[in-house]
Amino acid sequence: MNVCQTSNTWRRPEVTCVYKLLFEVKREDQSQVGLRSAHAHNTRTSCPQTAAAEGSENSGSNFQVFASNFPPRQTTKGQCLAPRFTSDSCFHFLEKTEASIMAAAAPSAKASLREDLTCAICCDLFREPVMLACMHHFCRHCISRYWRGAQGPVTCPQCRKEFSSKQFQTNYLVAAMVEKVRATTSDTFVKSLEKQLKETLESHRLRKEEFINSIHRDKEKMNIIKRVGADLQARVKGDFRALHQILHDEETSMLEQLRREEEEEMQKVQRHLEAAELAVRDLEDNLKALQQASAATEDIVLTELPQLRPCVQVDIAPEFDINAFSNKYMAPLQYITWRKMFKSLKPGPSPLTFDVDTAHPSIHVSRDKTLAVECGVMSQHLNHSKRFTQCVNILATQGFQSGRHYWEVDVGYNPKWDLGVASEAVDRHARIKLSPESGYWTLRLRNGNEYSAGTQPWTRLQLGSFPQRIGVFLDCDERKVSFYNADDMSLLYSFTSVLRGKVFPFFSPCINDRGHKPQPLKLLCYPPVALSG
Ligand SMILES: [Zn+2]
Ligand SMILES: [Zn+2]
């Protein structure tokens, strides 16, 4: 043993480990400590620290409720009574113990649990814990060795209770608890826990930071959406207000015209009516005078006719041509108005024409400059610095550098074409890939069904239909070019960040496949028939 006793005193402070629960925790009664110490000395079998010796063990089979290594209660007679636990309280204790282990309880609680599971003989955690009939626990090896070296009756080294034989019970529950405490209090385990704790803390901190950043980003996005939405609403309202104004003006003008014409017709009839009424009154006066003269002829000889009013001349009743009056307003008003609206649209369709001076020599342009076709035969054009000499391209005459402009191109059933806008500064004498970087913002078709935006590399577009008319919308102020299927005005693609400076509508009918009929590109101008007024 590593602790020895001489006389009535403990030589080593480790005694607090051995009987700390018996003596030190209940230090209030020093006389009892002395009494028990003396008792231990006198019997020479009750103190494991003085009587460590060889001994034999008996395997016991009696089962008693686990009482732990809690301090036994001291009776007034100096007897040591271990607390008796019921099964329920035992499980309750185990649950608490388990919870305290798994939750990595406060160091003091853990230390207390460790003390409870410490063998009073070797002052270390139990190894193969066994329980005596008094319900005190010791390591199997410790109690066996204690009994082998003890003289006299078999006793519990902790409470001195005497037993008839060397019996103990293996306590698997305590054994399991000890293993858990041993595992959870090892340096490696603690360090690993601390590391885990740090890592978990850091990962939680990082995740929280990420979420906070994400919240900020979401809020910022919501603000942007609100701002852009408000701008767009204002824009849509503005455009419709302009349309409403056009319609309202048209309606007012037409109703005013109708009211004027109606009044004119009414006045014509009114004048005739009044003249006829006046004529009737004059004739009635004359009739009266004539009747009086006729009655007087019985008495006197009539020498002259009575004085009569001159007869009023009334014009022929004006003709009212109901068809002429109503036809004007029975016309397809909505269509007429819609056609008139083209003149007021902003941007209205730009009446473009091809600039022959820019055309590649193999492109032929119609006389009215609205058709361009590649026919494989090089024309004898005048040399012009504006002309495309390498690529089969052509520009429109009209260039833009401010405002908003819209035009439409009839691409028909051409299996390939390019169109869009080109910077005025593009190199017209080199073979250049069409892309915004080289000054072209284009849409293209290849093989009859492969639509792409002219980015580098090309951006393939999946269109649900094969538009025969392409609308191009250029917003110089917003630096955007958008392409539409002009049949239903669905958006096909948009370029942003178009270079500032003058740009021109750009077209390429591409090189016609030999053996196929050349297909022209046609500039559309609305309304097809100009309305006067
Ligand atoms: Zn032990
Ligand atoms: Zn005992």
TrEMBL record:
The keyword Zinc applies. InterPro entries: B30.2/SPRY (IPR001870), B30.2/SPRY_sf (IPR043136), Butyrophylin_SPRY (IPR003879), ConA-like_dom_sf (IPR013320), PRY (IPR006574), SPRY_dom (IPR003877), TRIM/RBCC (IPR050143), Znf_RING (IPR001841). SMART domains: PRY, RING, SPRY. Residues 119-160 form the RING-type domain. SUPFAM superfamilies: Concanavalin A-like lectins/glucanases (SSF49899), RING/U-box (SSF57850). Residues 248-300 form a coiled coil. Residues 37-58 are annotated as: Disordered. This is Tripartite motif containing 105.
